[in-house]
Amino acid sequence: MLPLFTAVAAVGALAAVGYAAWLFSRDANSGPPRAETPYQRGVHALLAGHRDEALEAFADTVQEDSENIDAYIHLGNLLRERGEGQRALDLHRKLTARGSRTAAQDRAIREALVLDWIAVGRPEEAVAQALAIRERERKNGFGLPLLLEAYEAGGEWDRAFEVRAELSKAKGERDPLALARYRAAIGEICLRGERLDEAMRHFKAALRLDKDHPVALLRLGDIYYETSHPERAMRLWKGLAAAHPDQAHLVLERLEVSYFERGRFGDMAQLYEEMLQRNPRDARILLALARMHVKRDDLPEATRAAREALECDPRSLEARLLLVDIHRRTGDPGRALTEVDALLRHLSGSDHPACPRCGARAEEYWSRCPACLAWTEPA
Q: Which of 168, 231, 309, 347 gives a 20 to 30 Å CA spacing to 114?
């Protein structure tokens, strides 16, 4: 019995010691939590999208700990984002001399330098830096997006397209529509720079990838019209309206002017009716039809089309203004004033959509923002 008693006593003693240790540990852990470090505060602010707070926290971090390379990297990136590209560049370049950086930190610094060079308006250095990253990351294609951005910043559009095609291959994209979209956007940039031959080359290349690409059809038509080939232009614009009924509004005014200049204004009614068969709720086509009836002095039909347009889009300022004009022409000031009152109630903002990235407003449709090159609509 004695050995058994001794064993039970020993187990009980161990249990008591364990319980006491747990109590001590619990009491120790129940004390005040450790204060959040400036670096932790910066990371949390960055994740929450509070850029100014994050910048301040990372600045505090490097004041306290000059060895925190990650904090310096974040600090430089935030400085660049708020327009201080040169300070960001100077800071990131100094980090390349640090011998204690990890492979991940080295990659982050070199990536940041590409964007810094772009920010200070030196795309050649950005391309050189991005090419070096690409060589290091050739197996996984990691450096391609940065190289693409660098070539875009330098206006090297043919090389940019090659990289975009390589990026599509690396992602396993087999649909040529994305490349056609990119080609057409390059053509638009050339068009804005009045490099018509170069623009035409890119638009034709886009159409080889996608025979009905809307931007290429629209802009190639513009070039043909400006270079005295109106029939070719009209074929392309009508092709756009037929292939993409939801974007037919882009060519309405172009076709209207072209038909009018050729003395074929009467043919527009048939064209509009064909467009409406494909997209009967498009207020813009109905408005174009109403305008045509006004020019032909067929005010009852103009009123009908304008009313239908307003039913499709109750906030259409153009429909309200057209109805005001129609009622003025028919000598009905009461109805004209009613439409003016409705117009004032619905009046709001610019009709030109703002760029989703920089907020700039263009006078006409472009697939990429002329100010910052952001895509104006999702792929």
A: 168
The reported pLDDT for the residue numbered 11 is 41
Helix axes 103-119, 123-136, angle to 10 degrees: 160
DSSP structure string for 139-179: TTTTTHHHHHHHHHHTT-HHHHHHHHHHHHHHHT---THHH
Distance CA 294, CA 113 (A): 59
Q: Report the chain's terminal Cα–Cα distance, integer Å.
A: 84
In this structure, the number of other CB atoms found within 10 A of the CB of residue 6 comes to: 10
Decide: 352 and 362 in contact? Cβ < 8 Å.
yes
Q: Average pLDDT, whole number, for the chain?
A: 84
Question: pLDDT digits over 132-172, tens only?
Answer: 999 887 777 778 999 999 999 999 999 999 999 998 888 88
| Pure H helices in the chain | 2-29, 38-47, 51-64, 69-81, 85-95, 103-119, 123-136, 144-153, 157-171, 177-192, 196-209, 214-226, 230-243, 249-261, 267-278, 283-295, 299-312, 317-329, 333-346
Cβ(330)–Cβ(300) under 8 Å? no
Q: If you write DSSP's letter for every residue of 42-84 in order, what string do you get? A: HHHHHHTT-HHHHHHHHHHHHHH-TT-HHHHHHHHHHHHHTT-
Amino acid symbol at 207:
L
| Total-model pTM | 0.74
Give every residue of the chain whose pLDDT is below 50, as ranges: 1-24, 26-28, 348-350
18 C-beta neighbours (distance < 10 Å), count = 10
- Assigned token pair, 4: 């058994």
For residue 375, give the 3-state DSSP assignment: strand
DSSP state, 377? S
Cα dihedral across residues 337, 338, 341, 347: positive or negative: negative
Question: Quick one: DSSP state of residue 282?
Answer: -
Contact 312, 282 (CB under 8 A): yes
Q: Which of 148, 155, 103 is nearest to 130 (CA)?
A: 148
* Rg, Å, the chain Cα set: 32
Structure-token pair, residue 6: 């001794």
Element (H, E) at 352: none
